[in-house]
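README, section 4: Worked example with a bound small molecule

Sections 1 through 3 covered apo chains. Here we extend the same pipeline to holo records, where the ligand is supplied as SMILES alongside the sequence. The molecule in this example is pyridoxal-5'-phosphate. Nothing else about the input changes; the structure line simply encodes the ligand pose together with the chain.
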Amino acid sequence: MKPSDLDPVVDALEAELRPYRDSHHTYRRLPSGGRDRREILDEMRELASREEAKWRAGYSSGAVYHGSADHIEFLNEVYAVNSQSNPLHPELWPSAVKYEAEVVAMTATMLGGGEEGVPTVCGTVTSGGTESILLAMRTYRDRARAERGVAEPEIVVPVSAHAAFDKAAHYFGMRLVPVPVGADWRADVAAAEDAVTKQTVALVASAPGFPHGVIDPVEELSELARRKGIGCHVDGCLGGFVLPWAERLGYPVPPFDFRLPGVTSMSADTHKFGYAAKGSSVVLYRSSELRRYQYYKTATWMGGLYYSPTFAGSRPGAISAEAWAAMLAFGEEGYTIATKALLETAAVIRAGIERIPELRVLGDPLWVIAFASEEIDVYAVMDQMSARGWNLNGLQHPPAAHICVTLRHAQPGVAQRFVADLEASVADVRHMPGSQGVMAPIYGMTGAVKTRGTVEELLARYGDLQFKA
Ligand SMILES: Cc1ncc(COP(=O)(O)O)c(C=O)c1O
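The generated complex, written as structure tokens:
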């Protein structure tokens, strides 16, 4: 395939990224005089209202995890109250210190640390799941370098783990050693054991993983890590704020947190099922000795003594305040009620998918439900679902799609509408073979877009498009 063959795909992507090209002014230089604030707000409200209908009505997978009008209004007020706060200046905003420390403490207690669990569990607030993972991986690299003299660090990572681990390896000069998953889509423990070498700095488990929503055998993996004297990071970005409450509700949740002695760090996203605003997550460590490897500090900078716990320098204190406020507004009871609604809705969706003979649910998931098909093109089904307004996630190896169920789907009738639309989409694909739309190749890089070079070219063009005015 020639790079020019990508043009129609890139055009389709551009149309999706830039629907306002023709209807709204494009700024390529500053306006000569400042615009009226009211007018700016009106324009933004108009754009937001065009975009809101889709996620509000529950047509997206993941993306908006709570989204009720009163909760959004509450978080917006919290932002407004704290909009100037920057934890880089704790002397000006000690409230930010309080909020962040308490977000960490409450998350640690929820995940087997704190007063009722392992008292030494500690952590930091970060900007999202990816930053939590990047920080943890770099922490293990630096610890292994300092304490074991590891010069060519490796991380052992199940192939179902989030791409952020690959990004960490890429950014921090580590080798990612992939571990296959079994027929149940959970990491293969024996293969993980074979993958550990003297250079291994950490082993990863997901609770659950993004693609198929299944929980790795964390108990066995963390025990393996303990035996080998390496770190074990449990990625609870998706599950950290769901599994504790699912367990309390009696769902079959295997041990996954700091109650397991081999678990040395975790990530849990306040901005997903913690129902906070976008831009916050928590990374936790079993001990403050380990956390210290995360900090950056310099005593020689001309600008004075400088310390920063995460990647950013200045940080939005208001986002941390929103995480604190969301956690207080829900409390244990609120999260338990929300989780009950989430998991009951997911069960309806899973049962609906299982009733469709052409589709097969992958593994035994609770609320991130992936499906594949041996009979029809699942990406064509995704295209048909897109035509019906849905926004699902495409997976590959093998071709599959998933829906990450959120509270948006727990609104009356949404789960039923999803199942009915999926049945209709499957029927359409069955009766119109070859009905693959223009986006299908992108979901799984199948069909027309085959070679790795072409895929990388496509992704690079996408990147260029994203910041082109
Ligand atoms: C399991 C898992 N880990 C990590 C991440 C990365 O989180 P973020 O997009 O907040 O950086 C995600 C995102 O969906 C995830 O599902």
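What to look for in the output: The CA atoms of residues 276 and 323 lie 5 Å apart. The longest helix spans residues 317-354.

Section 5 describes how to batch many such records.
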